[in-house]
Structure formats: C-alpha cells, structure tokens
Automatic annotation (TrEMBL):
This is ABC transporter related. It comes from Xanthobacter autotrophicus (strain ATCC BAA-1158 / Py2). GO terms for molecular function: ATP binding; ATP hydrolysis activity; branched-chain amino acid transmembrane transporter activity. SUPFAM superfamilies: P-loop containing nucleoside triphosphate hydrolases. Residues 2-225 form the ABC transporter domain. The keyword Thylakoid does not apply. PROSITE patterns: ABC_TRANSPORTER_2 (PS50893).
C-alpha cells in the first residue's frame, strides 16, 4: 500500500536521504530505527509532502508527486510529529478535532472517528475538557496520537513517540497501539525510534536507516505476518 522507491532528499548540497526504498503492506506495523540524524524524520516528512524529494512515493496506487501535501491526509494518512504542536489554549478534544475540521469531515464521520480515538485512548475522554496546555508532556503525546488517528484510516506515522516518556506512560502508549491494531487491523503503522530494541515486541518488521540509506529490513522474531 506504500512504496518508497529510491527516495532522495538533499538540504542544499547535503544529501540526507540517499535512495531510500521500502514497501509496506496493508495493516503492517514497522519499526523504523536509526540514530539521531539518520533520516527518519525526513523520510516521514517526505511521505507527508513537507520536503521536496527525488525518487517515487506511491500510496494506495497514487503517485504522491501528484498529490499536494495538504491533500495527503485526505488519502487516510495521519502524522504525529516528534514535537507535538498542541494548541495550548484549546481543550484536549478541540485539539483532537482540529484535523477533522480542516479536512471538512461530516459530523457523523467526525463522531465515528472520535469514538475510535476514545476507544483506544479512553484517558483522552477523561481529559477532553482540559486546556491542552495543562496536560503533561507524556499525556500530550497521547493527545497527538489521538489527533493523528482522526485522519489515519489507512496509515499512521508516529515520530519517536516513546522519546522522553516515563516507563509507565511508555507501557500505556504501547498498550494503546496494540488496542488500535486489534480495533483496526487494516491500519498500517510506521513508528520511528532510536532504540532498536524498544519496538521489537510490537512491530512485525524492523527497518534500519543509517546516514540516509536503508541498512536493514528484517522481520521481527515471532511477529512476522
Ligand atoms: N530543514 C533542514 N535543513 C537542513 N538540514 C536538515 C533539515 N532537516 C533535517 N536536516 C538534517 O538532515 C539529517 C537527517 O535529519 P532527520 O531529522 O531526518 O533525522 P532523524 O533520523 O529523524 O533524527 P532525529 O532522531 O534527530 O529526529 C540531519 O543531519 C539533520 O541535521
């Protein structure tokens, strides 16, 4: 459902992605690991259309070169960037609903998707009316996940969601992702992480990126589809 074929990105004369190729099947969860600066975020941003890239990115049969960045979420792609960018004066629920409003989803569809968010992240319902500025950093990551899920009907991209999470919240976050996969087995996930061990028990494949090149693409023991 997602094909990256020799994707390249340069900033000025500096190549950051040097021919990244991999494919994702429907419903597959992939850990995308690599050191800081290896090119994980740039790969996700290329899929979202936030950086100019060479090569080819295909999603559900669409060549994304022909789909403007603001239209890509409409294909069912949700993105939770590393920095959460919550609107602190809006409530938690208003933050979650924002992408649905931008995408002009009908009220029935918005409600259906919000119910799915609260099903996998019930703690968000409890904090729905709180200003987003009053939640902790870890809770903010949950809100960012909820917001990404409002648009992610086919694919969700999570950039280092475990970074800086206290162990208890990291476990809770992983549990929410498992619940999401049970609820919605056709949703594909790419989760970036700098620690290669952290996602091994969760994703069925680990793709490793080193200095802008794919250095490994292996099924995870016991979880391969
Ligand atoms: N807008 C930009 N302009 C110039 N260089 C950039 C830009 N964005 C990223 N880079 C550089 O590209 C390289 C890859 O960055 P990227 O953020 O994709 O890495 P990453 O693997 O996600 O690492 P991190 O864990 O630090 O986010 C880094 O050397 C970074 O400094």
């Amino acid at each position: 459902m997602l094909i990256l074929d020799h994707v390249t990105v340069s900033f000025g004369t500096v190549p950051v992605l040097r021919g990244v190729s991999f494919q994702l099947r429907e419903g597959e969860a992939v850990a995308f690991v690599g050191r800081n600066g290896a090119g994980k975020t740039t790969t996700l941003r290329s899929i979202m259309g936030f950086t100019r890239n060479g090569g080819r990115i295909e999603f559900d049969g669409h060549d994304l070169a022909g789909v403007a960045a603001h239209l890509r979420p409409g294909l069912g792609i949700g993105y939770a960037p590393e920095d959460r960018r919550l609107f602190s004066r809006f409530t938690v629920e208003e933050n979650i609903l924002l992408p649905a409003q931008v995408a002009k989803l009908s009220s029935e569809e918005t409600k259906r998707r919000l119910d799915r968010v609260y099903h996998v992240l019930p703690e968000l319902k409890e904090m729905a009316r709180r200003p987003a500025g009053s939640v902790s950093g870890g809770q903010g990551k949950m809100v960012a996940l909820g917001r990404a899920l409002m648009l992610a009907t086919r694919l969700v991209l999570l950039d280092e969601p475990f970074q800086g999470l206290a162990p208890v919240l990291a476990n809770r976050y992983a549990e929410a992702l498992r619940s999401l996969r049970d609820t919605d087995p056709s949703l594909a996930l790419i989760i970036t992480e700098s620690n290669p061990h952290l996602l091994r028990g969760f994703a069925e494949r680990t793709i490793t990126i080193e200095r802008g090149e794919i250095a490994g693409d292996v099924p995870n023991e016991g979880l391969a589809a």
